[in-house]
Amino acid sequence: MNTLDVKEIRKKLQLTQEELGNLIGVSRNTIINYEKGGKIPDSKSTILNNLLNENAQNKNIVNEPEAVYETGFDKKIAESKKEIEKIKEEILKFENKIEQDPTKKVTYEKYISSYEEQIFLLNEIINITLEAKKDFLENNEV
């Protein structure tokens, strides 16, 4: 990867030097150095290429606006819901594996059960967080 590539990637991703640095785990000055011809370690070059490829496949991967939450409670709830969605995807993968190889059904069902327990616990966290938010808002009325 050459210096123009780094700047080109950054511009395609519509990122500042600091934002790109944060994404790949280096400082803004390091990005400036890369853009001026400094040596790019293979590990960072791989990350940059992956970012470019991911963005090409999914235009919203980097350009998606950051969510704004009314309270920290809302952020925790959103994070928990997002985690539940990821777990549901994993459950679907195991359900598909059961269809492909019914002989391993018992093993896969154990994984599914574990994931379902995680969903239950995350829903409990959401409910507790909602209660805490309600209490907080009631006690801090203006």
UniProtKB/TrEMBL annotation:
<protein>
    <submittedName>
        <fullName>Helix-turn-helix</fullName>
    </submittedName>
</protein>
<dbReference type="Pfam" id="PF01381">
    <property type="entry name" value="HTH_3"/>
</dbReference>
<dbReference type="InterPro" id="IPR001387">
    <property type="entry name" value="Cro/C1-type_HTH"/>
</dbReference>
<feature type="domain" description="HTH cro/C1-type">
    <location>
        <begin position="6"/>
        <end position="44"/>
    </location>
</feature>
<dbReference type="GO" id="GO:0003677">
    <property type="term" value="F:DNA binding"/>
</dbReference>
<dbReference type="InterPro" id="IPR010982">
    <property type="entry name" value="Lambda_DNA-bd_dom_sf"/>
</dbReference>
